[in-house]
Amino acid sequence: MTDTILKSFRPEKLTPKDFKSDQEVKWCPGCGDHGVLNSVQKAMAAMDVPKEKFAVISGIGCSSRFPYYMNTYGFHTIHGRAAAIASGVKSANPDLEILQISGDGDALAIGGNHFIHAIRRNIDMTIILFNNEIYGLTKGQYSPTSKQGMVTKTSPFGTIEQPFHPAELALGAQSKFYSRTIDTNIKLTTELILAGSKHKGTSIIEVLQNCVIYNDGAHTLITDKETKDDFQLLLHHGERMIFGKQRNKGLVLGGNGKLIVVTIGEFGIAEQDVLIHDAHNPDPHMAWLLSNMSAPEYPVALGVIRDVSALSYEEKLVQQIKDVQATATIKCMDDLLNSGDTWDVK
Amino acid sequence: MTQKIKIIEREEVVIRFSGDSGDGMQLTGTQFSDTSALFGNDVATFPDYPAEIRAPQGTVGGVSGFQLHFGHMEVNTPGDFADVLVAMNPAALKANLKWVKASGTIIVNEDSFTAKGIEKAGYDSNPLEDEKLADYNLIKARVTSLTKECLKDSGLDQKSILRSKNMFTLGMVYWMFDRPLDHTEEFLENKFKKYPLVVEGNKMVLRAGYNFAKTIEALPYNFSVAPAKIKKGTYRNITGNKATAWGLIAAAEKAGLELFCGSYPITPATEIFQELAARKDLGVKTFQAEDEIAGICTSIGASFAGCFAVTTTSGPGLALKTEAAGLAVMTELPLVIVNVQRGGPSTGLPTKTEQSDLMQAIHGRSGECPMPVIAASTPSNCFEYAFRAGKIALEHMTPVILLTDGFIANGAEPWRIPKMSDLSPINVPLAKEGDDYQPYARDAEKLNRRWAVPGTKGLEHRIGGLEKMDVTGEVSYVPENHQVMTDIRSERIRRVANYIPDLPVKGNEEADVLVVGWGGTYGHLTTAVRELQKEGKDIALAHFHYIFPLPKNTEEVLKRYKKVIICELNEGQFAEYLRASFQDIKFKQYNKLQGLPFTVIELKERFNQLLEEK
């Protein structure tokens, strides 16, 4: 899969090394961020985009140090506002390839407003959302994605807050591209970054990321070698949603509109009964069901969950300006100054 | 009927139109000022309206007013007191009577003085029948019923008929001041192009009002105000907000950059954003953000990407933009932040004027965070100072705050249109492909860094809010470096003073009293000082447009005078700032916080007092 996507881009002479800056990477040893950095550099090298056309924009948080480690144009901004700044960059110069780096606190708490509005406008950029369900940089407070009941420094008796499911939030804001990966799966992450970059509009890549210091093992059930095959569903458009160690588990739609996990060969279930993944379905209903599956009841959906094409904000902005200019009588400032009601004093 | 009515020659006249906020008073006032400007008078206007879209009808709180001042001479203020008040209902009379000159003319819509209307306005008895108005020239016109009568066969519905009653009073005032109707007729034809009935109806009512005024004998005289002697050229009427928008577009064109404005609607700054949004023909990109923070952040992003970026707001919006403004200072990106000041704090008086964001503009950010602050002073010079704000931002690579206020933003005046070729060039320090580029390497004179726009090959670099190493721009926690960078940020803004004009003084260099003002109080201060000078008083005026940094001759000017009085529509923020800057000068203050501009009368009173003090 990765290879086919890689080949669909024109092979570039750039290598991942070209995207490494001379700055020392200061994340904790074992942090999931390292894997994502690696994936991003691989994906960029594979894209048909000259190096100077990349702009990597981040907010605040551990992951948001990312731009400093990239040898591209980069902007490390302020807490929660990366989406707004990236929206301005892309609107100002639609030729740029924009990557936004945000954590779950940055994008979904302080920056929640900008996150949903960037998606609503469908600004063409790829948002990598590092979800470790904790505040790392401020040293261990719960985040908007922390599981209810979680004990942290600011919830010593367990959080009483309902967590956000990032996908639900994004789909509610009419997200056209939603995908999910795991920090350690560099191949999948690279593939998704390429797919997200190809998609015209806001592409979200949720990375289930491990914080070794403050929330180690948050995603163990999904990532552990022993259990991962039973709790990961890797989606491919047009293919049946089959998973499991024995590749004998699948998803079917129950009469109540809910997804049901079935075992092929049991109770008369055959392979052709298992649902086929349609990432391009304009109706978001199935994407909603798939993206909200959580372990242990369900496998967690990885890969491209939704990929529906639509015009992006900056395309429409540029077009509108062209349309207005085509018939406009005012072509420059002098025209404007002298337009309308003027009079001469002699 | 046709007897020749006495004509009184006047130097200047002030008219105040007032009525319910749905009565069309802003439109009536604008029409009269446009017509007067076309006639050749100098004009200044002051719209005054409630914050509610439709405040309770017939109450004092719902009164909307529009005052205009036109003259045969230079007019700098909308005038303190009105020669003529138009009051469409008892509430309008109640709210505005105190602004009418002794023995002035009051035109009332008699139909609205019903028992209910009188009670709603808070009067105990009908004011038209008691002694209160005996000293005025009261003209009672049955505006509503005459309008209805005039349009009974027009085919218009009742609502549209009632809506056109403002044209009746406009017609009356046109006759009183001997003004032609054609400009307003043309306006109606354009505005209601799709509704010929409405055009005809309004024109009929306008003429009916004109003829009514001509016919009745209640008008003992009419006024004649000769055209003003003004400089040759092409003129137009312009409001401060429109002039600000145009100044920003002009700066972008001069710099050869695209204009980007990320903003969020807020009174009274909104029209700037609206005007920019309408200028797609000139390639202006506007972005209606989800909040004020996103407004400035999209602009910072656009600036990073190579646009001339601006964001527009009013008081509480500037408070929200604060953190991002700090980012723009740290990253040394060009940006113009326009703050149209309004009454504060908090939501305060959103439709009223004040100058109380000065300290917020100079200091209101975290850390040592200097940025230039400049202020426009009249509706039309908002163009010039918006342009200059753009020039400073782009040439010095810094965010700049441009202060205007509700009074000049909504006010209008005739403006001699400049030619783009007359404006100064804007030289943008762009880094080019092949340059040896370090993000924080600096120009020796201005100390600005160069702007390497994403997409330029070979200049890839990273910027951000963390402290940067001098020259290289790498993240740095080195203590000595923070001192160096803080000093540079401060010094480079101080050096903007090398590129701005000296502070001019109007009047005698050795005068007894120096009046000091800044921003939108210019018209009132100028008029008050000029009138006193005409009376032979020893007084001069220094009005500031450049607040931070101050013009280089500021101390020298202030030290020349025995008594210096600082006048502001706040509790003394500029005074405090000048005291901190020049500790051995004694300053006196005159301050007002009523959501209203100064009046010339109160200023003259205070200055006279000061002139007499030993």
UniProtKB/TrEMBL annotation, chain A:
Domain of life: Bacteria
Entry keywords, A to Z: Oxidoreductase
Annotated Thiamine pyrophosphate enzyme TPP-binding domain residues: 60-207
Single annotated GO MF: thiamine pyrophosphate binding
Coiled-coil annotated spans: none
InterPro entries attached to this UniProt entry: 2-oxoacid:Fd_oxidoreductase, THDP-binding, TPP_enzyme_TPP-bd
Single biological process term from Gene Ontology: cellular respiration
Record-given protein name: 2-oxoacid:ferredoxin oxidoreductase subunit beta
Species this chain originates from: Labilibaculum antarcticum
Lineage: Bacteria, Pseudomonadati, Bacteroidota, Bacteroidia, Marinilabiliales
Automatic annotation (TrEMBL), chain B:
Domain annotation Pyruvate flavodoxin/ferredoxin oxidoreductase pyrimidine binding: ranges: 260-471
Keywords: Oxidoreductase
GO biological process, one term: response to oxidative stress
Residues annotated as domain Pyruvate/ketoisovalerate oxidoreductase catalytic: 22-211
Entry keyword annotation includes Oxidoreductase: yes
Organism: Labilibaculum antarcticum
Domain of life per record: Bacteria
One example GO MF annotation: oxidoreductase activity, acting on the aldehyde or oxo group of donors
PANTHER family: 2-OXOGLUTARATE OXIDOREDUCTASE SUBUNIT KORA (PTHR32154:SF20), PYRUVATE-FLAVODOXIN OXIDOREDUCTASE-RELATED (PTHR32154)
Pyruvate:ferredoxin oxidoreductase core domain: residues covered: 511-595
Pfam families: PFOR_II, POR, POR_N
Protein name (record): MFS transporter
